[in-house]
Write a structure and sequence with these properties.
The chain has about 280 residues and is of the alpha/beta class. The chain is built from 10 helices and 8 strands.
């Protein structure tokens, strides 16, 4: 097994944390990262034009730790912040983490152990916990086994979690993060798999994904509308086979139908009650 902890070598892993108005959560995010062991890493945080005290909280949390770096920029959205962070990264592997999410103890050690047991892949994802504001922790539905997601499966739904480890060289090969999409990680995984990347999933919850009002993933209509744009762009790229393009078209039709249903329910019942109806329809 390769020793990835020696400080005489470059960081093996670069953690990218985009932060926008995250003064209440980013300290826990940072502390959960800096307490990790088992691998040499760097932490790159981008304050994406915050209007609160995010930058001051970050500077206080990273003071004296030479593994960390804070970059400030005007607001460009999550994709723009990730693009900036990645441009400064030197690690062979990259890991994205939201400024409102955090890691359990030993997360990096367990990820690296899984990687050593399953070499040769380009994207390593894991399960995670939903962390609710009332203190509840709920493990996300998982596959219960080690498995790989194919491009065909990813064309039907964004199965791969955002906080997956992936090769920096692969990101550079596909042209990096793109700012035009709201659901930037789904765009990323699709382009990577379309270029031949190999994915594997570790069925162990190694992240706490905080659930709260106002986060971008609560806007289902905007997410699915953006997914339509991402899939349309991929179809037009010429990277898909005829069968894959047909599958993408089918997913687009499903997203359009479900988005229309949501809009109608929101108009009649309001967003909260409308989402409850959507959830009941799925169960």
């Amino acid at each position: 097994m390769e020793d990835r902890t020696q400080e005489s070598i470059a960081p093996f892993l670069s953690i990218l944390v985009p932060a926008y108005n995250a003064q209440d959560t980013v300290r826990q995010t940072i502390e959960s990262i800096l307490s990790q062991t088992g691998v040499l890493f760097e932490l790159i945080l981008v304050d994406d034009g915050s209007t609160d005290d995010t930058a001051d909280v970050i500077l206080s949390a990273i003071e004296g730790d030479n593994r960390t770096r804070l970059i400030r920029q005007e607001n460009q959205g999550t994709g723009g912040a990730l693009k900036t962070a990645a441009s400064h990264a030197v690690g062979e592997w990259l890991l994205m983490l939201g400024a409102d999410d955090y890691l359990p103890e030993g997360a990096f050690e367990r990820r690296i152990a899984f990687m050593d047991e399953n070499p040769g892949f380009d994207i390593y994802s894991t399960d995670f916990y939903y962390a609710y504001e009332d203190g509840r922790l709920v493990q996300a539905p998982d596959w219960g086994k080690v498995r790989s997601i194919t491009l065909e499966e990813l064309l039907t739904f964004p199965h791969i979690s955002g906080s997956s480890m992936f090769r920096r060289a692969l990101l550079e090969d596909i042209g990096g993060f793109r700012l035009q999409f709201f659901n930037e990680d789904y765009d990323l995984w699709l382009r990577m798999l379309a270029h031949g990347a190999k994915h594997i999933h570790q069925p162990e919850p190694l992240e706490y994904y905080r659930i709260h009002d106002g986060q971008k993933t609560t806007d289902a209509i905007k997410l699915r509308t953006d997914d339509i744009a991402i899939l349309t762009d991929l179809i037009n790229s010429g990277l898909l086979t005829d069968g894959q393009a047909q599958l993408a078209h089918s997913t687009i039709a499903t997203h359009k139908r479900n988005t229309l249903i949501r809009k109608m329910l929101y108009a009649i019942l309001g967003k909260k009650a409308g989402e409850a109806v959507v959830k009941a329809m799925r169960s």
